[in-house]
Amino acid sequence: RHDLRGVGLERRSAVAGRVPAAIGARRLRVVVTGGAGFVGSHLVDKLIGRGNEVIVVDNFFTGRKDNLVHLLGNPRFELIRHDVVEPILLEVDQIYHLACPASPVHYKYNPVKTIISNVMGTLNMLGLAKRIGARFLLTSTSEVYGDPLEHPQKETYWGNVNPIGERSCYDEGKRTAETLTMDYHRGDGVEVRIARIFNTYGPRMCLDDGRVVSNFVAQVIRKQPMTVYGDGKQTRSFQYVSDLVNGLVALMDGEHVGPFNLGNPGEFTMLELAEVVKATIDPSATIEFRPNTADDPHMRKPDISKAKELLNWEPKVPLKEGLPLMVNDFRNRILNEDEGKGM
Ligand code: NAD
Ligand code: UDP
Ligand code: UDP
């Protein structure tokens, strides 16, 4: 009885738009869908670290139990194998909805499944949030801006997205997920938050997910040339994962719906990135040019003034400091892989 009364109070204060008193205290219960993945597992570490109870819901499509193995004995942690395309009943205060294949290699592997995960998965989590009065956060993406005609991108930009291309399952899937999120907010009064995440890197990224930072780092450690797609002059802005996690939590606990760009404005061409990876890991590393993929955005850089002003958030870790932090993790995993093959 005592516990239930406490939960009711939290809900009422959340509905009133204030930060619930229980944030940071032991009894805040949080679901992280996709919590066995790269970003999700770092977010879970932060939430457990501040005393929350955390339930991870993941189907292990790209996530790994290894990312959470250190938490398996923790009484405040629970891991559920579940596909968010199916409905689920839970009782929590906050829902971080990350579940979705995120790298081009993974989301193109089964594009129909990708769009269904985005639409049905987000619908189910919003239905859950509505039923239990929980606050819901969607991890959307800078890909909603497509190949942007505005640079850097502000949240007010509506994007330049191909609806019928190879990336559409992801880009349009996330755009629909944003639409659903706003419709549940306007129509059903669900408390929602939307983050538009820009390229993020760090330990626990899948070794072979085809993203540029993981590819370059793994290639140089394996003494292979870095594969630069196209002419390598396209740009991206790379954010270290701890900065992103801090931004997600600030957004969830704050009072603003968003959308908010969460990214590091430091902009690099792929050739410049290759130089930084080379300087960080091995000065003898080489590059090799490959044809680029379809619909590749030419440039991307977040305008983060809105998050700075309203969330009091900005990234702290520049690429040159963040890269060495993922190299050890990659080295160890590549070494284990090689030993597993009897090499
Ligand atoms: P990831 O692939 O490491 O994690 C995604 C997780 O979701 C995995 O654990 C996977 O098993 C799980 N998952 C996928 N489909 C599922 C389903 N149907 N049901 C249950 N679980 C499912 O990717 P990530 O980089 O950690 O991305 C996390 C979120 O952040 C994604 O929503 C992604 O779109 C978003 N995002 C990431 C980046 C980035 O640079 N990492 C950029 C923009 C947006
Ligand atoms: N849903 C869920 N868990 C819940 C509540 C709802 O998974 O605790 C799912 C539900 O099965 C439905 C979706 O969320 O597919 C949307 O729910 P909502 O109540 O908004 O719509 P309805 O069920 O009325 O169509
Ligand atoms: N890229 C590259 N070499 C690689 C992988 C990717 O040059 O081995 C390029 C890719 O063409 C794109 C950029 O790096 O221009 C970022 O690609 P990534 O898949 O990491 O992210 P996204 O395209 O989703 O921003």
From TrEMBL:
GO biological process: D-xylose metabolic process
GO cellular component entries: Golgi cisterna membrane
Entry cofactors: NAD(+)
EC number from the UniProt entry: 4.1.1.35
Topology class, membrane: Single-pass type II membrane protein
GO molecular function: NAD+ binding; UDP-glucuronate decarboxylase activity
Every NAD(P)-binding domain range: 32-324
Pathway: Nucleotide-sugar biosynthesis; UDP-alpha-D-xylose biosynthesis; UDP-alpha-D-xylose from UDP-alpha-D-glucuronate: step 1/1
Source organism, top-level taxon: Eukaryota
Keywords assigned: Decarboxylase, Golgi apparatus, Lyase, Membrane, NAD, Transmembrane, Transmembrane helix
Principal location class: Golgi
Listed name of the protein: UDP-glucuronate decarboxylase
Biological classification of the source: Eukaryota, Viridiplantae, Streptophyta, Embryophyta, Tracheophyta
